[in-house]
Design goal:
With 206 residues, this protein is of the alpha/beta class. Helices cover 34% and strands 14% of the residues. It is built from 7 helices and 6 strands, in the order E-E-H-H-H-E-H-E-H-E-H-E-H. It has a 6-stranded mixed beta sheet. Helix 2 packs across helix 3. The longest helix is centred in the middle third of the chain and has 17 residues. The protein is elongated, with a radius of gyration of 27 Å. The mean pLDDT is 92.
Length: 206
């Protein structure tokens, strides 16, 4: 069972916490991690790109000149692809890029991503992260105490002040326990979470 240090907002170690191996001590499957990242990026694509083919461009109904005797190459329409204002040969059309992953695959990938952060000592647990007011300076002070400049901060539900205090800090993203995903965990080189959030993650994903 993995054991990590617990810090306070001053950056001082105040204890340790045992992490559930079913979530934070699994075998990391790089293929599943790759699939989960590609899945999220693909599902975020709008797929609204569109250009007109020669059948959709207006005009071009009349043959521009007679077939023979002009010295020009034969042409049947001014909307052929080689003409200015003509249609596009293989024009992009709106499409759906999404693809599905099985629920068990998604959960296994998430557990693998969390495990990778624990193994690399980039998983920081704070006893609690509560602020009396919404103030970016206070949250930045906590990051400075922990010596972190790029992180995914996982908060328990209802911790609004901390969430809003971090929204204007570059390279910091906050997430709730039910919105964490593989892409964010791998994108930000450190995961910061509270003891309450760890308990919820273990309860949901174990």
């Amino acid at each position: 069972m993995a054991n990590v240090s617990v810090y306070n907002i001053e950056g001082k170690e105040v204890g340790t916490i045992d992490l559930n191996d079913a979530v934070f001590g699994v075998e990391v499957n790089e293929h599943l991690l790759h699939m989960a990242v590609i899945n999220q990026l693909a599902n975020n694509r709008q797929g609204t790109q569109k250009a007109k083919t020669r059948s959709e461009v207006s005009g071009g109904g009349r043959k521009p000149w007679r077939q023979k005797g002009t010295g020009h190459a034969r042409q049947g329409s001014t909307r052929s692809p080689q003409w200015t204002g003509g249609g596009v040969v293989f024009a992009p059309t709106p499409r759906n890029y999404t693809f599905k992953m099985n629920k068990k695959e998604k959960q296994a990938a998430l557990r693998g991503a969390l495990t990778s952060r624990v193994v690399e000592n980039k998983f920081i647990v704070i006893d609690e992260l509560k602020f009396d007011e919404i103030k970016t300076k206070n949250f930045q002070a906590v990051l400075n105490n922990l010596n972190v400049n790029k992180a995914l901060v996982v908060l328990e539900d209802g911790n609004v002040n901390a969430q809003l205090s971090a929204r204007n800090i570059a390279n910091i993203k906050t997430a709730r326990t039910n919105t964490i995903n593989v892409f964010d965990i791998l994108k930000y080189n450190t995961v910061i979470t509270t003891k309450a959030a760890v308990a919820t993650i273990e309860e949901v994903y174990a």
